[in-house]
Amino acid sequence: MSIDGKTELYGIIGNPVRHSLSPAMHNAGFATMGMNRIYVPMEVSNIEQAVTGLRALGFNGVSVTVPYKETVIPYLDEIDPVAEKIGAVNTLLFRKDRAGKVILRGFNTDWLGANTAIAEKIKLQSTRVLIIGAGGAAKAVAFGLVQAGAEVVITNRTREKGERLATWLGCRCIALGEQEEFTADVLINTTSVGMEPEIEQTLVAGDILSRFSVVMDIVYAPLETRLLREAKAAGCTTIDGLSMLLYQGAAQFKIWTGVHPPQLIMRSALEEELRVRRLSVV
Ligand code: ATR
After folding, report:
1. 70 burial class (0-12, 13-18, 19+ CB within 10 angstroms)?
2. Distance between CA 205 and CA 138 in Å, rounded?
3. Cβ(157) – ligand 1 distance below 6 Å
4. Do residues 180 and 132 make contact, with C-beta atoms less than 8 angstroms apart?
5. Fewest CB within a 10 Å sphere: which of 35, 91, 206, 279?
6. Which atom of ligand 1 has the smallest separation from the CA of 191?
7. Which residues touch 54 (CB under 8 Å, ≥6 apart)?
8. What's the rounded Cα separation, in Å, for the pair 203 and 156?
9. Rounded CA gap, 219 and 195, in Å?
10. Where are the alpha helices (H) located in 215-262, listed in sequence order?
11. Is the pTM of this model over 0.90?
C-alpha cells in the first residue's frame, strides 16, 4: 500500500478500540479494489472533540463503536431515519456541500449485518427468533429482524431491561432460564458470554439446542464458541460472530465507496487477523 497526498482517510472511533478487527477488513477491501484509501483505529476519550477533529482533518468515513454509538448523535448534521429509530449510529459519512461545508451523516448498519448473516441460512419472514441479551447489539439485531417480519422473543439476565427492549420492539420477553422450555427456529446469543478467556461458558444447555434450526453467536473470539460447537453437534446450522461483523462492514463499505465490497476477501482478512492474534498470544 502506498500512502500519498491523495490518500482518503477512514477509521474507527471507540474506547477501547485497539483490539478492533475492522482495520484488517476495510484495508483489505480498499486494497483489493485498488482504492487509495486507508482505515485506522482511533481511541477517543472525548466524542465532541473527536468529531470536530475528524471534520477538520478531512476524514471521509468513520465507524463508531462502543461507547459512542448513541453519544455521537448530537454532533451529526443528518441522521438516516433507521439509525434515528434505533437511536444508535455505527457509521459516519462526511461529504462536502456546494459551498465546501462538511456535512456529516450518521447511519446504522449493525441491524443490516445481522439480517444479512441470518438470511443466508433461513428466511426471516414469520421465523421465530429467540434473542439472548438486551444491550446495544441485541437492540440492533432484534430491530432488523422485526422489520423483516420475524417473530422475535427476548430473554435477558436482568428481566426489566429485557422487558424494556421487548416493549420498544412490540414483542415478548421471557425469563432467562425459561428458554430451556422454549422452541424457536433461530437462537441468537448477543451477550459476551463465551468470549475469551472464559471460553467454556454458555447460557444455553447443549441438550436443548436441537430445538433450534439455526444458532448464531455474535462472539467471534473464539470463532467457534462452546455454544456453536454444541449447536453443530446437535445438528443445527451455525452462524459465527464474524458474519455480522463482515456484513455490517460490507454495508459501511458500500455507503463510503458506492461500490459492492469484495466480501470474500474481507472475510479472509478477518479470519487471518484472528489467526495472527492467536499466534501472537501463544
Ligand atoms: P452490547 O452493547 O455489546 O450489547 P451491553 O449493552 O453491555 O453490550 O449488553 C450486554 C448484554 O449481555 C446484556 O444483555 C447483559 O445482561 P444484563 O442486562 O443482565 O447486564 C448480557 N450479559 C453480559 N454478561 C452476562 C452474563 N454473564 N450472563 C448473562 N447475561 C450477560
Report:
1. middle
2. 20
3. yes
4. no
5. 279
6. 12
7. 13, 62, 92, 94
8. 10
9. 6
10. 226-233, 241-257
11. yes
Is the distance from CB of 158 to CB of 128 less than 8 angstroms? no
Nearest to 88 by CA among 218, 228, 224, 248: 248
Q: For a substitution probing ligand 1, which of 19, 157, 226, 245 has the most ligand atoms within 8 Å of its CB?
A: 157
* Residue 190 region by backbone torsions, left for phi larger than 0, else alpha for psi between -120 and 50, else beta: alpha
The rounded average pLDDT for each run of 10 residues, N- to C-terminus, in the chain (282 residues) is 93 96 98 98 98 98 97 98 97 96 97 97 98 96 97 97 98 89 94 95 95 97 96 98 98 98 98 86 46
132 CA: nearest ligand 1 atom: 14
Ligand 1 atom at shortest distance from the alpha carbon of 161:
18
For the record, the C-alpha cell of 148 comes out as 423483516
Amino acid sitting at position 62: V
Residue 122 CA to ligand 1 center (angstroms) comes to 26
